[in-house]
Amino acid sequence: MMECPSPITAHGRSVSDRNAHARSGDILFGMIARLAGWFILLIMAGIILVLVWGGRQAFLAFGPGFMTSTAWNPISHHFGAATSIFGTLVTTGLALLFAIPFAFGVAFWLVEMAPLALARFIETAVQLLAAVPSIIFGMWGFFIVVPFMAHYVEPLATHYLGHVPGLGLLFRGAPYGTGLLTGGIILAIMVTPFICSVMTDVFVSIPAVLKESAFGLGATRWEVMRQVVLPWSRQAVMGGIMLGTGRALGETMAVTFVIGNSNHLGWSLFAPGNTIASLIALEFPESAAGSLKLSALLALGAILMVISFITLACSRIFLQRGKMN
Amino acid sequence: MSAQKSPPGIAGGWQRGGAQAVRRRLVERSVSVLCNVATAIVLFLLFSILWTLVTRGAAGLSLATFVHSTRAPGSGGGLANAIIGSCEQTGLAALIGTPVGMMTGIYLSEFGQDGRIVQLVRFVSDMLLSVPSILVGLFIYLIVVEPAGHFSGMAGTLSLAVLFIPIVVRTTEDMLRLVPRAMREAAYALGAPGWRVILSVCLRAARGGIMTGILLALARISGETAPLLFTSLGNLNWSTSLNAPMASLPVTIYQYAGSAYDDWVQMAWTGALLITVAVLATNILARWWLTRNGSAQQ
Q: Which residues in chain A have their CB less than 8 angstroms from residue B120's CB?
């Protein structure tokens, strides 16, 4: 560009030369950019294909029964997915049960009640909680939360709730400390920041006039939240929850430390269990290449992929619509 | 919208006063208290984690941690091989992931004429952002480790790169979208070709934000454990070769924390402290940088 100050004053030939040069540069650049985009598609397709193809042996050997069988016996070569799918769904469900009220409480506090200077500080602190590596949560859970659960929470819960008809079934069993409940609690701590930050963003983005008119009519903060803010931001909040669900479903290291890792399916929340991710992490290193067990683990991976795919697609749809409103 | 129907009901309750007003005040009070409690508990948990790490991890911090590699239980040793391994794998993953991620981000923000493909790439890249990281480990195991016949640092690097790319894609796209239209038009008006406008004008303007994204992505992958379990496996000896199993901090923590030896558990706490401090410091730095750059642009 330095050699000629303006295309108009330059000779016709050099202008066309430069145009051709610019065009070929654009074409090349476009090609590189497209290649990079397609590369992303290739990685995703690769992950899906590799898991499904790797799991075909197990899918073929066990058929649809793979999903409902609770067996996991490497010696007799019987493998089933039911226990780990159950564990994954229960821990994720528990995580959401604990995380949603907390995330909502913190978001509500940050948006409506906190002094401005403190709000920024605490918002950062909550976001930092999301940045802590999952292995740290696992270790902290294993050394701090598990003994706490075993010594205080579980004996008390068994004592007071264990005899309630129906509900009591959930709280019986030896207080190991590890188990589905502990897994759910650790997951809840990990996903709370994600849900909270989405909620905070939507609550802040609501048009001020909507809230002000409600306040002007004498509504309390809670009434404004219940009857104005929440209906207005319902979809985006759902999207945030879905985002947290996706996190909880695939979390591996934190759960592996505290879930107890036993292939057991039962009512008690105190009993050790496993999840798809923790089962893969523990059993994969001991699986021989080409074995049926390896194939079963890959099939589990494919199932996990499908579950998280559905959740994430939902979260995207919700968040997209929330943005458009 | 249902929001507009609610105010009359609220006003009615307020005017009636008496029992209704008391009840409303009570609800408002208890919600406030509950929200305060929720915030306090979340903060307490964060500080409990940090406090545990500092008190348990600092005890094992010494010069040996940084200069010796891991050894058999009872014979001392440090984490030098794991620290080097982590730096090598995350650094290389960033080197591979940054150009790919940035080009994809440019593709998403600047090549809107590709329509459906752009939308598909954006959707897939969002998916990739939250794919369970253990599945990425399985994927790399099957396409790299199994054909090669051995675990390797390179496989670990590739699995981290797969996790790194979508974060960079997202930030690059978001930051490029923030570049003012007038800036692009000015560059085009000077006769610059499209690729020059994108590289020298748009990317330059979005530099701060993209760098922040890369830092956050680095922090995220440096704590990843699950994908490394099946790819770089870990190594108790000094390991810098990309073609052999390679140690890393998260995997060493995972192996040591569950062991029965006190000094190994101590080492795991020290490693956990190191990695958390590094990750949190990077995050704080990146956020501080972003707010400073963000306010400078406006």
A: 41
A214 CA: distance to closest CA in chain B (Å) = 6
Of A4, A62, A115, the closest CA to residue A300 belongs to A62
Low-confidence residues in chain A, pLDDT < 70: 1-18, 321-325
B128 touches chain A (CB under 8 A): yes
Question: Is A109–B39 a contact, with Cβ atoms under 8 angstroms apart?
Answer: yes
Category of B78 on φ-ψ map: left (φ > 0), alpha (ψ -120 to 50) or beta: beta
**Residue of B46, B134, B196 to mutate, interface with A, max A Cβ within 10 Å:** B134
DSSP run (H or E) holding A22 = helix A12-54
Q: Which pTM does this prediction carry?
A: 0.89
Tens digit of pLDDT for each residue in B102-151? 999 999 998 877 788 999 999 999 999 889 999 999 999 999 998 998 89
Cβ of B3 within 8 Å of Cβ of A228? The answer is yes
What's the pLDDT at B76?
76
Digit-coded pLDDT (tens) for A2-30: 444 444 444 445 555 667 777 788 889 99
- Cβ within 8 Å of B, A 283-322: 284-285, 289, 297-298, 301, 304-305, 308-309, 312-313, 316
Taking an 8 Å cut-off on Cβ atoms, the answer to whether A232 and B287 are in contact is no
Nearest to A185 by CA among B161, B112, B41: B41
Q: Which of A17, A130, A290, A49 is nearest to B283 (CA)?
A: A130
B124 CB neighbours in chain A (<8 A) are 40-41, 44
- What lies within 8 Å, CB to CB, of A163 at 6+ separation is none
ipTM metric: 0.88
Chain A, window 191-230: residues with a beta carbon less than 8 angstroms from a chain B beta carbon: 192, 196, 210, 213-214, 217-223, 225, 227-228
Cα B126 off chain centre by? 14
Neighbours of B223 (CB within 10 A): 23
pLDDT tens readout for residues B250-273: 999 999 998 888 888 999 999 999
Cβ contact (<8 Å) for A40 and B35? no
